[in-house]
Amino acid sequence: MKKWSFLFLLTLIGLSCSDNDDEINPENPRLIGTWLLVEQYADPGDGSGEYQKVDSEKAIEFLEEGIFKSNGELCDLNSEAGDNTAGTYVMNDTIISQFSSENYLIPDGCNTEDFKIYYHLEEGSLVLSYPCIEGCGQKYLKK
Known about the structure:
mainly beta; 8-stranded antiparallel β-barrel; 9 strands
């Protein structure tokens, strides 16, 4: 009987494991917490752009209620910490390890209508993709 109980327990544990580690629970995603800016990307228009390390105190904190706070401006691409800003984030696609137009930030106070910054997680970094004509973005590491 002990042998059958052990086998039943092992089967139950095996069935409860997820086979898709990229999918997250939107109720408690890995996104929640504080992220520090570490790299910035800007392409000059010829495809030669690369992420460059930045020395910055800029951070973004994601809260569970779909709200984020930052100690820097997010309406344009810069690495400066300064004025506190906030906004909302949307997570419609629970697979955030790849780019999706379904996951985005909406910073408060931007002058552009329907301004969105798309985000995804890549190799432990939070990647923000800004709406630029040429490629631009930022990478953050979790604090």
